[in-house]
């Protein structure tokens, strides 16, 4: 496998993460055991390019690194936050190039890459690049485009974006796979699209999950020539293992034993139970609400949907009316806010599942939550994904 794309520094505040990966770097590591002798073509900052070469060499991956003076990095506050791009070149660099049997090409910050392959997989990494595989002269006898929903929707006209024939003509591709985060993926093909489920994981470390999906799909569809739907299904399974363990090297062993998330393919309504009386509390509620919406969830947030005025009877009645209309509760229990704890108990009395974020709880404060079947985590992204999965209908 030839992997072409970006190798970047990644920084995250919570959970702490400081690594040199980027999409192409992570994909090369992921494929090192699945596809021995893989080859990485990328730009790399002069200050750590040799580290990348040595690390890849230790995994059996050969490299063709074009050294640059830009230390390109993506900074995240948490894995669902909008990243801050630091150190990008002021103007595009000369394009990379590669040719071979099977190529996985990622969109890049520094510029572009022209590739020629029998089978190519293209992950654009940005909406504006989604239609551009062929624009720079890249060729492939068979092309699969792996992208997310935002990239699928970008620039679409009024036609049905989920229609295979329309998408095939837009992307000039044989296979289109749409990554949908906690909702799994969709393989678009003649005769009807195939939904690929997300698979169960105890934790969700989202950074790089899409890179793992694209890498495993490229290997199974491109090199092993599995049907696209089967390749995408195993890619989704590999993602579940990665987000749970952060283990970047992929093995197919045991993936068939993973269980999919039950429920439908659409997120339901999620009640946000949390205090909102200080700036930090309000920020967290707003962040949760925005992330849930970004992932396809509908939310009921008392401070947004009811407000803080009108008297106790009015506020409590409206809040609980909203809670009963929801499929799931996402709660913040740090600080043990009385209203939040009441809402959790009220929800459990009605059989509504609760996912609780508890970053710094007193152990004794968890007794009733654990005893009534609440899901408890100390990780923000895991809590948000857990609420989406719990609400599926």
Automatic annotation (TrEMBL):
UniProt xrefs under SUPFAM superfamilies: N-(deoxy)ribosyltransferase-like (SSF52309), Ribokinase-like (SSF53613)
Transferase listed as a keyword:
yes
Q: Does the keyword Transferase apply?
A: yes
According to the UniProt entry, the coiled-coil residues are: none
GO molecular function term, any single one: kinase activity
Query: Do you know which InterPro entries this protein is assigned to?
Result: Nucleoside_deoxyribTrfase, PfkB_dom, Ribokinase-like
Q: Gene3D superfamilies of this UniProt entry?
A: 3.40.1190.20, 3.40.50.450
Which ranges carry the Carbohydrate kinase PfkB domain? 173-252
This protein's UniProt keywords? Kinase, Transferase
Name this polypeptide is given:
PfkB family carbohydrate kinase
Q: Which organism is it from?
A: Nitratireductor aquibiodomus
